[in-house]
Amino acid sequence: MQETFLAVWRGTARWREDAAGADAAGWLWRIASRRLVDALRGAGARGRLRQALARLRHRDEVSAEERVLAGVEHGDLAGALVRLSPELRAVLQATVVDGLTTREAAVLLGIPPGTVKTRAMRARRQLREALA
């Protein structure tokens, strides 16, 4: 990451709207991927990368995902989710947990896409109020 931002800061990577398709995230992604390939081509980089990955694999820390899931199951969020109406909970399940688009959730739930958006907005508002 640092090499990517240094390349942008130093100006060695130039933004060209026509080449990047007006997508800054894609532009940064290309710079980062090139920097990574360059680093991996360096002498001994593969060995250092394997060692770093091995150290990470053997850590006994709880992952961020596990901490969030534990908070969902046992924290205030679980209670707030239970208090939502089944319709609002179903929309959150489809769009947030299952990762469906609004259109896909509408097909799954048998409701119009606008209703999915409205229910998602209401669910987020109720959760925000319950957790405040």
Topology:
Layout: H1 2-10, H2 17-20, H3 24-41, H4 45-57, H5 64-74, H6 76-83, H7 86-97, H8 102-109, H9 113-131
List the main descriptive attributes of the protein structure presented here.
132 residues; mainly alpha; Arc Repressor Mutant, subunit A; 2 domains; 9 helices; 77% helix; 0% strand; extended; RNA_pol_sigma-70-like; RNA polymerase sigma factor
> How do the helices and strands follow one another from N- to C-terminus?
HHHHHHHHH
Low-confidence stretches: none
Shape descriptor: extended
Largest sheet: none
Number of helices: 9
* Rounded Rg: 22 Å
Beta-strand fraction estimate: under 5%
Helix content: over 70%
CATH superfamily of the largest domain: Winged helix-like DNA-binding domain superfamily/Winged helix DNA-binding domain
Structural class: mainly alpha
Total of domains: 2
What is the residue-averaged pLDDT?
A: 77
CATH hierarchy: architecture of the largest domain: Orthogonal Bundle
